[in-house]
Specification:
about 0% strand; elongated; 4 helices; about 90 residues; mainly alpha
Length: about 90
């Protein structure tokens, strides 16, 4: 019975729907988009942040920590704003 209770509590924590704004991941993405006027600089940082799993850890932090905090109270991260609209119109 004790194992069933523990399994139920773990499932309740894992299967609650804490959809949220993913502010940590979006902050890093926006920072990279505004890093340089040269697209290749952003691309090098983008690839580097995937090799060194910066984006992955930020997204995991959003899912496990920050969005859960937002679900139960207030998300401690401020809104990073929208992705820059002129990003794709930059020329190298």
């Amino acid at each position: 019975m004790k194992q069933l209770l523990i399994a139920g509590l773990c499932a309740a924590g894992l299967f609650t729907s804490c959809l949220g704004p993913n502010r940590a991941h979006d902050s890093i993405t926006n920072w990279n988009a505004n890093l340089s006027e040269q697209h290749w600089v952003g691309e090098v940082v983008f690839i580097g942040f995937h090799i060194i799993p910066v984006y992955q850890f930020a997204y995991l932090g959003d899912i496990v920590i920050f969005n859960t905090m937002g679900y139960w109270g207030e998300n401690p991260l401020k809104d990073p704003g929208a992705f820059p609209e002129d990003f794709h119109s930059k020329k190298d």
